[in-house]
Amino acid sequence: MFGEPGDAQQKRPKQSWLLCSAVVLVWLVTSSAHAQTDDQLSLGEAISHAIARNPDLPIFDLRIRALDGRRMTASQLPAYELGLETEGIAGSGDQGVDTAEYTLSLSSILEMGGKRQARIGIVDAEYDLVEAERRADILDLLGRVTQTFISTLAIQEKIRVAAEAVDIAETAYETVKRRAQQGAAPEADVLRAKAALAEARIELANLTTNYQVQKANLAANWGEMSANYSRLHGDLFRFEATASFDNLFERIANNPNIEVFANEQRVREAEVQLAESLADSDIRWAIGARRPEATNDFAVVASASIPLFSGKRNRGQLRSALAAQEEVLYRKDNALLRLRARLFEAYQTRQQYLEAFRAMNKQIIPDLTEALRLTREGYERGRYSYLEWNAAQADLLSARHSLIETASSILLNQALIEQLTGQPLEAQ
Fold first, then answer.
1. Does position 122 have pLDDT exceeding 60, yes or no?
2. Is 299 within the bounds of a domain?
3. Which residues form the signal peptide (predicted)?
4. What average pLDDT does the chain have?
5. Is residue 109 part of a domain?
6. Are 375 and 384 in contact (CB under 8 A)?
7. Radius of gyration of the chain from Cα atoms?
8. Is residue 295 part of a domain?
9. Which residues contact 294 (CB under 8 A, 6 or more apart)?
């Protein structure tokens, strides 16, 4: 499956980039294709920055380099040993250097049962595991970037609404003040309108501050201390159609977190193979030459030895490896159950918010907009009080904020569905 360790490094990054391009939210990437200015940031650009410069991702390159070293070690044959043995160099009688015997030998181990290939197999499986973990981390990073982007885009939309609210409050204040000067409104209404204008400006200032914080949080995903853009480019009110829940659940197998279990399972299988290979006893051999000093003759010597009962002594390690292999299956099944529960919650929540959004957008917002128009006209004619006019303004503003929150919730759950399935909704 693998050649030299360098081959593995060259093949891996391509898989990660394919995953990245597959899970980008279609609704924002499409919108980012339109003309932009240099100070705007799209979701596609945010994701590209995060993948290219996120400080956590280089760790996987270091892990691959470590595996390269382990593979080099695992592929080595048993070491050769050079030995020198001396007999009769000292003792009683005529023992001494002139009567000693010297044996020079070369020895090593002949591995049996495919131990070398089993060691290499573990490292090769760990290459796949590290890459699966890399893809899972990239998917989590995409989820964080997308969620932060959506939340920041929602604040950006709220700022627009809040700025309009300030304009409305300024107009209302001027209108009430003019009517008070004409004797058609009490001075208390002027104070209420002035206070409402101050509250609208405070809300706008709070949102602006929160917006700057969120932009910095987004930029932190690619290692920047502050945002070098002024606005986000995207459509908060564009949603993709979704397939049925059963169809979405079938695609959970594409989630890189599930691939991690599949690759971990292969690592455990390789460990079982290594444990089984250890049951075959290795043969220690030696060959050399013996030279008695007394006669100056040479003799070839050879030896071989094999440990007994290796299979029995290895049962504990084999049992441990088999248990670890079975454990992965249980953890994978448990992970699938948790993913299904999260997918079901995200799917149902998104459907609920979609219905709420349609009702707000088609009925509630238009009705409240018309009610505000009629109330304002009625106030200027003396039919409604300022409190009624102000209440109509507050109702419409609250509804527009709820519309933004609802749209944000739809997109956040859409992003979660795409993260869980590993595919954009449009592709499903």
1. yes
2. no
3. 1-35
4. 83
5. no
6. yes
7. 37
8. no
9. 98, 99
How many Cα atoms within 13 Å fall on the side-chain side of residue 138?
A: 31
The answer to whether 28 and 43 have CB atoms below 8 angstroms apart is yes
Distance separating alpha carbons of residues 131 and 127, to the nearest angstrom: 6
> Could you give the dihedral angle defined by the CA atoms of residues 248, 251, 252 and 257, in that order, rounded to the nearest 10 degrees?
-140
Indicate the pLDDT class of residue 273, thresholds 50, 70 and 90: confident
| b/e per residue 266-297 (b: at least 16 CB within 10 A) | bbbbbbbbbbbbbbbbbebebebebebbeeee
Helix (H, G, I), strand (E, B) or coil at 212: helix
| CB neighbour burial string for 163-186, b if at least 16 within 10 angstroms, e if fewer | eebbebbeebbebbbebbeeeebe
Token pair listed for 108: 């090593």
- For residues 136 and 163, the answer to whether their CB atoms sit within 8 Å is no
Question: How many other C-beta atoms can be found within 10 angstroms of the C-beta atom of residue 406?
Answer: 21
How many residues in the chain? 428
Between CA 11 and CA 7 the distance in angstroms is 6
Other beta carbons within 10 angstroms of residue 417's beta carbon come to 25
Across 156-238, the runs of DSSP E, i.e. the strands, are 231-233
Find the domain containing 22 and state its range: 5-78+114-279+315-427
Percent of the chain with pLDDT over 70: 86
Confidence of residue 94 (pLDDT cuts 50, 70, 90): low
Does residue 94 form part of some domain?
no
pLDDT in tens, 365-383: 999 999 999 999 999 888 9
DSSP H or E segment with residue 374: helix 365-380
Query: Contacts for 47-50 with beta carbons within 8 Å, 24 or more apart?
Result: 47/20, 47/142, 47/145, 47/146, 49/221, 49/222, 50/141, 50/142, 50/145, 50/221, 50/222
Handedness of CA 51, 54, 59, 61 (dihedral sign): positive
CA 317 to chain centre: 34
CATH number at residue 138: 1.20.1600.10
Residue range 234-245, pLDDT digits in tens: 999 988 777 788
Position 321, amino acid: A
- For residue 285, is it left (φ>0), alpha (ψ between -120 and 50) or beta? beta
